[in-house]
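User: Let's play a game. I give you a shape written as tokens, and you guess the letters that built it. Ready? Here's round one.
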């Protein structure tokens, strides 16, 4: 597979580049007892979380509050993004029973807000959109009061995928740009900056009631001015919410951290985002797409009601 070849070449290059030493503010406390409790529920239902697969630094914090981001459509991605720790290769067949198992986990964990994401599935005709739809339907059948946020791949060259998702019972649609336009070829090979923006624009046109959201990492070598341009691009496409976090290198085989930014830098990015008209901005070293997703959704809903 071409993605595997390109990833191998990138990894050979990246091993020669060191990241700077981690600063004091990059620290994570692990609450083993809390993690094991929720892990037992997830394993019993044979569901996958992006929390584990992507080695999220917030896993302990989120799982202690019974928050988890479910990853559907398997754990093997057809893309080869240089920042991501999820395996790349030929995925297994889609498990038609997975939506029911995810819904059962949501019910057992008594989640009032759930985030559903997936690997890229370029091998599927619809990129996995129907499977997203089936999962949403099953969750609503078992947990009708649970609000749903989906974090989707880009469905590149897949017809009618966004149209299908716009008709689903979701509350937040999230698609991450991940990084600035100039870094796409090395950070998100296979993706396209303009196409990702078009997804966010089109879903909003199809369903204006949806909140739209996108996230980026910093520390990959981007310029401050490029982040400002990205924020403007998101706002020009009517995106409500931006998340900004520090990129953390999963292994020496992945894209190196070029710079660790201070909490003051993230505060500056937050202020810039809010000045541009985002309803909500989350900006900190450990911010990730789904971190505090339920609390942020409640804030978005309250802002909407008061508007």
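Assistant: Ready! My guess for every position:
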């Amino acid at each position: 597979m071409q993605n595997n070849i390109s990833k191998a070449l990138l990894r050979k290059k990246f091993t020669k580049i060191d990241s700077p030493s981690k600063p004091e503010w990059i620290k994570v406390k692990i609450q083993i007892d809390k993690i094991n409790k929720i892990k037992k529920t997830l394993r019993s239902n044979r569901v996958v979380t992006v929390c584990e697969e992507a080695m999220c630094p917030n896993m302990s914090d989120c799982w202690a509050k019974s928050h988890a981001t479910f990853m559907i459509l398997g754990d093997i991605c057809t893309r080869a993004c240089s920042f991501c720790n999820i395996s790349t290769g030929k995925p297994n067949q889609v498990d038609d029973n997975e939506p029911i198992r995810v819904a059962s986990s949501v019910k057992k964990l008594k989640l009032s807000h759930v985030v559903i994401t997936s690997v890229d599935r370029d091998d599927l005709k619809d990129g996995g959109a129907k499977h997203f739809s089936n999962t949403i339907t099953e969750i609503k059948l078992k947990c009708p009061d649970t609000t749903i946020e989906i974090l989707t791949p880009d469905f590149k060259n897949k017809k009618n995928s966004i149209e299908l998702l716009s008709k689903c019972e979701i509350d937040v649609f999230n698609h991450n740009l991940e990084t600035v336009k100039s870094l796409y070829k090395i950070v998100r090979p296979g993706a396209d900056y303009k196409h990702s923006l078009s997804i966010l624009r089109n879903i909003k046109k199809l369903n204006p009631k949806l909140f739209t959201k996108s996230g980026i990492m910093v520390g990959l070598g981007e310029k401050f001015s490029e982040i400002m341009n990205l924020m403007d691009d998101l706002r020009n496409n009517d995106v409500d919410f931006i998340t900004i976090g520090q990129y953390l290198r999963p292994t020496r085989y992945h894209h190196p951290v070029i710079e660790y930014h201070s909490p003051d830098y993230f505060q500056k990015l937050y202020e810039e985002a809010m000045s541009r008209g985002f309803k909500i901005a989350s900006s900190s070293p450990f911010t990730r797409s789904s971190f505090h997703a339920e609390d942020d959704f409640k804030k978005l809903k309250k802002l909407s009601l008061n508007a």
